[in-house]
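Notebook entry, structure prediction.
Reason for the run: the old model in the group folder had no record of what sequence produced it. Starting over properly, with the input documented here first.
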Amino acid sequence: MKLLWAVDGWRAGNAYGMSVYRMKLKECVQAAGVSVTTDPKDSHDLAIHVQLPNRFDPLPGDRNLLFTATELSEPLVWGENVGEAAVLVVPCEQSRLACLDYFTGPIEVCPLGIDPELFPFYQRRKPAPDEPFRFLFVGNDINKSSRKGFQILLDAWRDWFRTGRMPSNVELYVKTSDFPGPEVQVFNLPTGRMTLDTRNLNVRELVSLYNSAHAFLFPSQGEGWGLTLTDAMATGAPCAWTAWSAMLDYADARIGFPLTEFRMSPMRWRCPQDDPGANEKIAYGAEVSIPHFIQRMEELYHNYPAALALGKAASERMHSRYTWAHAARKFVEICERALELPVLAEPARAKC
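New structure, fully documented this time:
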């Protein structure tokens, strides 16, 4: 079997996650011994497109596979060409369910992974009462949308302070790239110390940031996979995350602090997003209960030895089940099945 990596390179619109999927899957498929080319003129058996659905450009006469992701109850964007894919591949079961009404062909689930060499387990310790206890959030789109849960995080942090129960040594560290201003800003707010970090970090610097945190917070309203959560888990950071979408596939109460109290909240967008005249669409994401979120942060802080044990269990799970090598093996199996499918599937109707 020889694969054509039809879309190569780093960026996929604004989708950082999709770029990582594309790069790491390609590396690990090649490491597994599968022949890969990026030249459409080379002979090949299957054309691989790791791409957003609205950017999918199938190669005429080829058997095309589209690997994409959907974060919410329905796809944020779609494209009329998606129906020409022989098979649609998504990272999680929620993405599969979200695409059922949009794609008539086979939809396969291929979990993603972590890099065990770049994200090894790191042994944390409980800080002394006069030492900072750092809660870390990593995510973009804090100015553009609420899907990553940044506003939920700020509301919970504010309300925790208002209860009078917030310990004096906790701090919130927010890593993003979507906020203007200096690369690192430290705010000594009435609700406690907050750091806003907009630096462009390489992977090793990002690992150091994860290791500097005592706990990782991820109140996302929906994920196709959740790369930052799995990377944080790989380092052994005790984590709290929304128990919906992709996180249901790989995380549970045996390895951390799932945020299980939420409501399904409508999120609106225009599709296609760059067309001001397009109809507004609605999808649903999980909006975490603020009191429940505060309870989880208090459990992380006050029961830190138990939290560390769960963090170690999370690291062991990520390293034993969810590496990029595991993802590549599953993806190769899907590609082998795709070779038996017709070159062109019956086009699905486009809802966007």
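Summary: The radius of gyration is 21 Å.
The old model has been moved to the deprecated folder.
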